[in-house]
From TrEMBL:
This is DUF1289 domain-containing protein. The lineage of its organism: Bacteria, Pseudomonadati, Pseudomonadota, Alphaproteobacteria, Hyphomicrobiales. It comes from Ollibium composti. Residues 57-77 are annotated as: Disordered. Pfam families: DUF1289 (PF06945).
Length: 77
């Protein structure tokens, strides 16, 4: 059995504006159909991913405990 190359980085969440995964840049259909795609089709999708990821609005980072405590004390980051 041969391993199938995948752009997945285990950050699996879809940007509702673009429809692309925040982690890899694929659409839901591409993710679900990845295993059935031909190697050529997968390469085409992978070639488009860097440009797609540029259009994804990054999820806001969660506030860390340290940052929250500093904010509550009135300190600046």
């Amino acid at each position: 059995m041969t391993a199938i190359e995948s752009p997945c980085i285990l950050v699996c969440s879809i940007d509702m504006k673009t429809g692309y995964c925040f982690g890899c840049g694929r659409t839901r259909d591409e993710i679900s159909g990845w295993i059935d795609m031909t190697p050529e089709a997968r390469r085409e999708v992978m070639a488009a991913l860097p440009a797609r990821l540029e259009t994804v609005e990054r999820k806001p980072r969660r506030e860390t405990r340290r940052a929250r405590m500093a904010r509550e004390r009135g300190e600046t980051a």
